[in-house]
Fold Lipase.
Amino acid sequence: MRFIIFEWLTLFHILKFSHGFVFPSFMDPDTGKQLYEFLESHNWVYENHTVVSPDGYHINAVRLPRARGEIPSNKKKPCILLVHGYASQPQLFMVPLNNSIAMMLVEAGFDVWIMASRGCVYSLKHEFLTPKDAKFWDFSFHEIAYYDIPAYMDHIRNVTGNEKISYIGHSMGGVLFLAFATIRPEYLKRIDSAHVWGPIIYNNYARSIEEKTWREDERIQKGKIKGDNEWSRLKMWLAIIFCNTKSPFLEKCMASQDGFGPDRSQIDKEKFIVHMTNDPSGSSIKTYLHVLQINQADRFQFYDYELFRNLQVYGQFKPPLYNLRSISGKIPIIISYGVNDYFAGTEDFERLIAEIPGAIGHIVPWPFFNHVDFVYAKDAKKLLYDYCVRMSKMYATVTEA
Ligand SMILES: *[C@@H]1O[C@H](CO)[C@@H](O)[C@H](O)[C@H]1NC(C)=O
Ligand SMILES: *[C@@H]1O[C@H](CO)[C@@H](O)[C@H](O)[C@H]1NC(C)=O
Ligand SMILES: *[C@@H]1O[C@H](CO)[C@@H](O)[C@H](O)[C@H]1NC(C)=O
């Protein structure tokens, strides 16, 4: 054990202090590549965008305006916004490249926008705060839903002249869409369709051990855990050492994903390290607490500050609800879930779907499909993306602003 620690510490220092370190050739060429390096190494056509939210966060996104080799033209395309899950980041939608949802959408004729949510490594700037300020981390998915999604919709409209967008959100990216749909109804009519992947709102039937222990953890319940970005890039170096295809620890490393629902058969061993080096990225602890509160209260509610503070903030003792019924069939919302998602059970997903008037439930046709298979699974194209691209296309419009 001492040797292992020594080994990774040494490697960490080598990697940290040597720019342009070349990973051994048996490691996937995307290993250790950050978002922009990754895009550039594949000659992907992309643009950087930054939008400043009304509360001062600089929210970045990459835009994939056209496929490689496609000649730029003035023809307007339907736009789609992709939003990643808790503590994740945009690259998740692009690995493995050719069978990724991002590339499939680009090739299907979409103008693709992938947001880096506030707090993830690619969106850490603020007008006057820095990530060192506790205040910087004082946000939940609520603020992303309330400020960032509308800000991006306006920005996309300004840039493309297209009034409408389609949407895909994984996990938290889906949960926050549902919140958005209830608190920003004026924007809802500018959505063509939305795909919500594995939203964890109710989780009475969760099987994840972590989820259960977190539920009972008093520090978490009382919100006493340090409220900042606790994830570190160190994880990346650990992944490189332990999760490479030649590592004797690869099986253990893959087992670390079992908490999402065991599905080793869908893990692509070559690409696994790429995901492990990038995720988790970062987000606020408050976001996590908010989700736990929702799980525990068993109601889809605003952040709970507890009685008197609630009275100050909301004018009532109990946090208000995100009223899913108010969405009332105005737009197509497709909720995809896996029956082996350990963060929530089929009963939980079905209950949620039943509460959203007109929502379409979609069970991913693979009995072991888990919470991260949406973005990690080897066969995601066949099992999920083909369907999502087809459905998004069906509803997509180009509406002049
Ligand atoms: C996008 O931003 C990154 C990080 O600031 C930079 O390295 C990259 O060159 C930019 N790419 C383009 C196309 O502007
Ligand atoms: C992905 O597709 C491009 C062009 O369609 C091709 O040149 C490239 O070799 C493919 N990459 C992989 C890893 O299959
Ligand atoms: C969109 O354009 C309008 C009008 O020019 C401007 O007021 C607004 O700030 C822009 N919004 C974004 C998010 O870029």
